[in-house]
Amino acid sequence: MSKSLKNIFQNTIGILIGGLFLFLTLREKPLAPVWESLANADYFFILLSFLCLFMVFYLRALRWKLLLEESGEKPKSDKVLTSILIGYFVNSFTPKFGEVLRCTSLQKNSGIPISKSLGSLMAERAYDLLILGIGVFTLFWIELDRLQSILNSTIGGISYIYGYRYLYVFPIVILLLGILFIISLKKLKRSEKPILKKIVGFLHTMFESLKSGLLLQKRVKFITLTLLIWISLVLLNYIYLLCLPDTSSYSISFAVVILFIGGLGWALPSPGGIGTTHFFLLQLFLAFQLDPNAGISFGILSNGLTFIGTIGLGGYGYFRYWIEMKKEKK
Predict the structure, then answer these.
(1) What is the C-alpha separation between 185 and 143, in angstroms, rounded?
(2) Which of 244, 236, 256 is nearest to 310 (CA)?
(3) Which residues contact 158 (CB under 8 A, 6 or more apart)?
(4) For the segment 62-113, what is each residue's pLDDT rounded down to a tens digit?
(5) Using CA atoms, how far apart are residues 118 and 203, in angstroms rounded to an integer?
(6) Where are the alpha helices (DSSP H) in 143-275?
(7) pLDDT one-digit tens code per residue, 173-219
(8) How far apart are CA 96 and CA 317, in angstroms?
(9) DSSP for residue 295
(10) Which residue pairs, CB below 8 angstroms and at least 24 apart, start in 230-236?
C-alpha cells in the first residue's frame, strides 16, 4: 500500500470512528436545549479560552525545545512553536498525522534531523501518557462507583464498532508487532545494503534521541514545564465550564476530572477528538448524575472552541512557516 493510500485509509478510519462515537452520543437526545445553552455562552470566557489555549501551545513548545536540547540540538523557540502549531493544525483533520508534519517542518526551518525530533516527540508523548494514565487511575480509584459506568459504556462503544470477539485481540496484535519489529531490526543491522543502512541509522538516531529525552538532565525545568502545561489544561477546561450557564457553577476540581476523562477521547484515533471526546464527556456527566444536555453542550462547546482555536493558531503557524521558507529561498 502506497503512503498516500495508507494516509487516506487511516484518515477514513479515524473519521468513521469519530462519526460513530458522535452518533452514540447524540442518538435519541433532544438537541433544542443544547442549542439554547450554546446560544447563551459567555463571549468573554470564549475569548479567554483562546488565550489559554495559546499558552498551552507555547508551554509545549518550550518543553519540546528542552527535549531537543537534550539530544544536542539548539533550536529557536519561535521555530519550535511554529512546528507545534502546524502539527496540531493537521491533527485537527487527521488522526495523528500532524506529528509527522511537526517533525518535517522543524527539519526544514531549523535543520534538525527528523530522526532526532521524532525521538524527542516520542519521549514527550511517553511522559504525557504517563501523567494521563496516573490521573485516570487515581480518578477511577477515588470515584470507582461513579466511573465504572464510563468503562462499561466505552467497552460497549468499542465493541459496537469491532464486535466483542475482536476486542481482546488488540493487545496480542500489538505484542506480536513489537516482537516482529525487534527481530526485523536485528536483521537490518546485519545488512550491507545502503538503503537498509540508512534505515538503521535513522532508527538508531531516533532511539538515541528518545533515550536522552527519557533520561533527562534538566529534570527540574522539564517537570516544571510539564506541570504548567497540565495546570493550563485544567484552567482551560474550567474556562470552558464558565462559558455556559448550565456549567458555570461547577468547581475547578470537576475540570480536573474532565481533563483526564476527556483526555481518553483525545487519545483515540479520531481527528480533533471529534465524537470520542463528546462520548466520554457525556458519560462523565451521566456518571456524576448531572444534566446530560449540559454534558452534550459542554462537549460541543469545548471541542468546538479547541478546534477553532487550533485552526486559527495553526493558520498563523503556517503563515509564519511560509514567510520563513520564502526568506530562506532569497
Answers:
(1) 43
(2) 236
(3) 167
(4) 999 988 888 788 889 899 999 999 999 988 877 667 888 888 988 888 888 8
(5) 10
(6) 144-162, 164-167, 169-190, 194-215, 219-243, 252-267
(7) 555 655 555 555 555 555 555 555 555 555 555 555 555 556 667 77
(8) 18
(9) H
(10) 230/131, 230/259, 232/52, 232/55, 232/56, 232/59, 233/56, 233/259, 234/259, 235/52, 236/49, 236/52, 236/53, 236/56
Contact predicate 93/271, CB 8 Å: yes
Q: What is the distance between the alpha carbons of residues 326 and 330, in angstroms, rounded to a whole number?
A: 7
Q: Residue 195 to residues 2, 21, 115, 199: CA-CA distances in angstroms?
A: 18, 42, 16, 6
Note the pLDDT tens digit of each residue in 47-68: 999 999 999 999 999 999 988 8
Q: How far apart are CA 100 and CA 80, in angstroms?
A: 14
CA distance 70 to 219: 10
Question: Per-residue pLDDT averaged across 285-295, rounded?
Answer: 83
Decide if 75 contacts 103 (C-beta within 8 A). no
Closest CA to 292 of 26, 19, 17: 26
Which amino acid is residue 315, in one-letter code?
Answer: G
Per-residue H/E/C for 89-152: HHHCCCCCCHHHHHHHHHHHHHCCCHHHHHHHHHHHHHHHHHHHHHHHHHHHHHCHHHHHHHHH
Instruction: Provide the residue type at 57 as one letter.
Output: F
Least confident of 153-167, 210-224, 285-299, 309-323: 153-167
Chain-centroid distance of CA 109 in Å reads 23
